[in-house]
Amino acid sequence: MTRLHRDTLVCLGIALGSVVLLAWVIPAYTPPYPGYGASPALVPNVAVSIMLVMSILALVRNSLIIWWGKADSSGESDYPEEGDSASFTQVGPAKLMHLILFMVPCALLIPALDWIGFIPASILFLLVMQYLVGRRTVVGPVLLAVAMSALMYVVMRYGFSVPIPGT
Amino acid sequence: MESIIAGLLDSLSPISLLFVFGGVALGVAIGAIPGINGPMAIALFIPLTYYMSPLAAIGFLVGLNKGAFFGGAISAILLRTPGTPEAAATSWDGYPLTQQGKGEKALRMALYASFAGDLFATIVLVVIAAPLATVALYMGPPEMFALITLALTVVAGIGSKSIARGLIAAAFGLTAGMIGTEPVTALPRLTFDIYQLESGLSLIPVAIGLLAFSEILIQLERHVGSGGSQGSATHFSSRPEDRLVAWKELFDNLKTLFRSSLIGVGVGAMPGLGAPVASFLSYDQAQKRSKTPDKFGKGNLEGIAASESANSAVVGASLIPLFVLGIPGNLAVAMLMGAFMIHGMMPGPLLFEENSQLMYGVFGSLVIASFFLLLIGRFGLKLFCKAVQIPAVILYPIVIFTCIMGSYLGQSSIFDVIVMLVFGVIGYFMRKFDYSFVAFLIGFILVPEWERALQQVVITSQFDPFMFFTRPVAVILMLLVLYVVIKTFVGNIRNKGYKETRA
Q1: For residue A166, is it within any domain?
Q2: What pLDDT sits at residue B158?
Q3: CA-to-CA distance for B109 and B115, rounded, in angstroms?
Q4: Are A7 and A84 in the same domain?
Q5: Range of A57's domain?
Q6: Is B228 on the interface with A (CB under 8 A)?
Q7: Which residues does chain B have within 8 Å of residue A76's beta carbon, measured at their own beta carbons?
Q8: Domain-located, residue A81
Q9: Which pLDDT value is given to residue B497?
Q10: Hey, are the CB atoms on B397 and A144 less than 8 Å from each other?
């Protein structure tokens, strides 16, 4: 899949999302017009309409380029041109797996704080993160995990006096 | 006059000095780490400022931002991996000097240039912000509505490679900013009946997710993909002429420093352009006006002076539209605006009326931060060079953990952590598909003010759209909006045509 095709798919997603917002979300979750001033739905409708119009324009442009067989590098010229731009904008299954791999421990940390407490959950989380990043030793990661968790606990509890999650 | 003196004295209080000093030192250290920049640092540290006085908080964040701008030059010069985009031009001449063993000299030149640009811009800000704010007080709701529309369009158009993607991102930010309680009816809007959303999405988790967490996700991808390669450590020559910048060399670059600082102030005062534009533009000007343009890119101190003074001048100058009009022109300033709002103040012309003592205290802190930057850079340079060598396998888990705890810290809310994670993923895809998160964040921050202005216009005009035509300034601003949209569209088409012709 070329970047142009991917961009087209993203625009299609934005257009569909905008339609859902305009047709369902905004009418269902906006207060009724109070009888004075602008309607509470006016600004959300304007903002989402901008998203819809712009994504449709981009869709039309991309479709014309694809239709005329110009889906070569010229259609990709307005993407970031960094040294490793090819891998930067890539969103294949491997990249998505990578994203999920790092997001799962972050999402699990939230209930884990309640299940096993702040310090054990934080230590476990930092150990998993270091392993995922590629740190394969034992002593260093354990020391870092314990030190960071303890430091955060002390800062939150005694520095800012905020309730510690999971305690 | 009384408030000016009281404000300046506040900025000289030990606690304020301590926070400004800490902010600058932390900023230099953080900015030196490749991949961490000023806005990211501000987003991560805003939660801590909840517990500080307004002046200490703003002084700390301003110092952090100033320090991070200079810190970005350290990794650019030593590793040719700019910590910030605006430091890229610094690496063109800084890294060749490092290869010649003159890294310390390059760093010192970067420091002096940063100090010069920063101080110049701060003086300009102090001199013109208050008088301009007095003029801005005459702007009514139609002008404010038109001005915010213009700012959003400029940020969406100039700040993005494609105006369509820029406007989509800005509109998305506006939509996200409207979640919460509707201002006229005081009833929940777009909350999906989730009670935590009734007070709206908090800026801190949104900013941490978009700026810091998503950036780390992208960097992790690259790091794991590249096998975790690190930059090499550098060697400094011990000869004085390779370590120090001579007075003659400094005087030779005075013209460049002044011109580049002026460019930085001009670019910084305009929303949407940002420090990278100032840096590249002044580097280009310095090369064009140099007697030895062929030496640029091979280790020329003038190149470093041009780039660093311009990008540091942007820091102070970008506060002009914030203080005068309440409009943030770039990410770092958007974050600072968030900090003002957290402390119950709305940046804009009224700030000088309502909090004049604080504002002059902030001005004092800005000037003090410039001198602290020189002091810290002068005596701690070698220490901060160590920051570039922190291994990614240690850094990334710490930053991720800090992102999570930082987003919790703001309101002691686990819901904010979830918001941060969601916006981290949104930011990841925005970066992947090149949708401007600058436009998103500025839309997100400005939407309450924009909607308030619109409601005031509608109520006072009783739905008369021709009301705008009775306000010449508003008409001019709306015409400028049209001009920016058309110009950016035409520019995009021309660029495409040019590239196709070249192909």
Answers
A1: no
A2: 66
A3: 10
A4: yes
A5: 3-88
A6: yes
A7: none
A8: yes
A9: 54
A10: yes
Three-point CA angle B264, B266, B271, nearest 5°:
100
* 3-state SS track over B162-206: CHHHHHHHHHHHHHHHCCEECCCCCCEECCCCCHHHHHCCCHHHH
Residues A98 and A67 both lie in one domain: no
Task: Tell me what the pLDDT averaged over chain B comes to.
Answer: 84
Facing residue for A29 by CB, picked from B172, B191, B228: B191
**Same domain as A129, residue A101:** yes
Task: Check residue A53 and give its pLDDT.
Answer: 95
Nearest CB to A47; choose among B161, B171, B500: B171
Q: CA of A113 to nearest chain B CA: how many angstroms apart? A: 10
Q: Does A125 touch chain B (CB under 8 A)?
A: yes
One-letter amino acid for residue B413 of the chain: S
> Cβ A133–B224 below 8 Å, yes or no?
yes
Tokens for A30?
Answer: 């906006």
Amino acid at B81: T
Do residue A56 and residue A107 come from a single domain?
no
Same domain, A56 and A84: yes
> Does A165 reside within a domain?
no
pLDDT, position A81: 41
- The chain B residue lying nearest A91, using CA atoms, is B432
Q: What's the pLDDT tens digit per position in B303-320?
A: 899 999 998 898 888 888
Q: Does B290 touch chain A (CB under 8 A)?
A: no
Tens-place pLDDT, residues A71-129: 454 444 444 444 444 445 567 788 889 899 999 999 999 899 888 989 999 999 999 99
**Shared domain check, A20 and A84:** yes
